[in-house]
Amino acid sequence: MESGSASTREQVSHFLPKVIRDILDRSSLPLWEDLEEIRLRLGRPLALHRREGDFYLNERGEPALPGQAYRPGRQDLDRALELISDSSLYAFEQELRCGYITLPGGHRVGLCGQAVLEAGRLIRLKHITGFNYRIAREIIGTALPYVRYFIDYRQARVKHSLILSLPRGGKTTFLRDLTRLLGDGVPELGFRGFKVAVVDERSEIAGSFQGMPQLQVGSCTDVLDACPKAEGMMMLLRSMGPQVIVTDEIGSVEDTKAVEEVIHAGVAVVTTAHGGSLAELRGRPGLRRLLEQRIFERVLFLGRSRGVGTVEQIIDPRDGKVFLGK
Amino acid sequence: MGQLILKVVGAVIVIAAASACGEQKARALALRVQHLQQFRRALALLAAEISFTRPVLPYAFKTAAERSSFPARELLLEAAVMLLAGGELTAREIWKKAVDRVLPETCCTAADREIIESLGASLGVCEQEGQLNQIRLTMSQLDCALEEALGQKHRSEKMWRYLGFAGGAALVIFFL
Questions:
Q1: Disulfide-capable partner of B160 in A174, A226, A273, B26 (CB 3.0 to 4.6 Å)?
Q2: What value does the mean pLDDT take over residues B88-108?
Q3: Which domains does chain A show, CATH number per domain?
Q4: Residues in chain A within 8 Å Cβ distance of B126
Q5: How close does chain A come to B84, measured CA to CA in Å?
Q6: What is the mean pLDDT of residues A164-187?
Q7: Of A85, A87, A111, which to mutate for an interface test with B (greatest number of B Cβ within 10 Å)?
Q8: Per-residue DSSP letters for A167-228?
Q9: ipTM given for this complex
Q10: pLDDT tens digits for B8-55?
């Protein structure tokens, strides 16, 4: 079940400059049903991305060739920045440093411009020339058929698990729904909710807006928003007494060290990583270390064989036992 | 006899009216100082709010307004309400509208108004340090205006009071 396009439209269009909003409103296409991105680039064609691919819109809201498409000007971009920052750019410095601002509803606006460096470190962006409105789409129930593979029923605990796919493969959508199920429990599958805590470094899992989760991650799930993963995991471990810590896209050596700490404290870890196979993961020092220590009990592979987010395989990487798929 | 009484009453009325005019002028000088002080204080509160808790502008305005008095309170609340209502106006336009609504009710001069209005250009479009610098700049401009207003008050307050009374008396003598 995907979140409604009417509410998505309401949530996102409020943050678009009026000119762009009017163009989208004039369009006779059912844009909002499967819209994934709206891209505003200074002096370049207004581009939209739907499941079937990119296309451009002219001033009348009709699909057009790039040469005839509407080109946002400086005024449009300044207005967009003002709208997404609630006329308070100073309140979004951290977000500007990370390159995105989260909107109510969990949607995100990626930003591109000129980097301002201080002692070689990125401190913020200036002269912002590109906005990518990324529409958050949660798919409730996508992890339901597979959640039982992540539960150790005998010990009433969650198995240390890794969700793997190539970029834009549906990892975060799957992880979000899995988090919700683990947090709320599924009585018909024989387990009650666990104490779940999420370290949401890029606000992608819970889509928090001003600290409040906007997407469904479980009614009792604790969310530590916009916090670096390694630091966040340790903080949650000390402060919230979780049974499960969920985080997204681990990869660095710091992340994997934090995962080890968490696991040795008796807390389950559910996380994701970019990669098409275990062999690819072994090429990354941090993840190789975790695999060598045989920490993960379940690895789920997502692919695109039947569309984005298809569960291709679930295995136990310690002995290679396959539970689902080939 | 009746005519004399009428003349005395008339003279008293003229002197009282002229004195009231002088008093009003003197009071306007004092009120200008008071209003500028209120605006300056409200901006200091706004800067503290942005510096420590970094709320979005409408809430920063509201918090600063709660601890301010007329006319700064009215200005900040007016702007906060318009910002919260959304719409197509930018923060700069909203600030200008609030200034247009509230400043005519004050004793501030056109130059004072210009200082306060100029803050709108930077509202919400700078990073924290830049925003604070802009507020501080407006505060220091208000300090100059305040100094000038205080000087004017000291120089002219008594003068307007005497001038009102003396003007009334001169009119009475002239008509008598």
A1: B26
A2: 93
A3: 5-134 (3.30.450), 144-324 (3.40.50.300)
A4: 89-90
A5: 9
A6: 92
A7: A87
A8: TTSSHHHHHHHHHHHHHHEEGGGTEEPP-EEEEETTS-SS--BTTB--S-S-TT-EEEET--
A9: 0.77
A10: 888 888 888 888 888 888 888 899 999 999 999 999 999 999 999 889
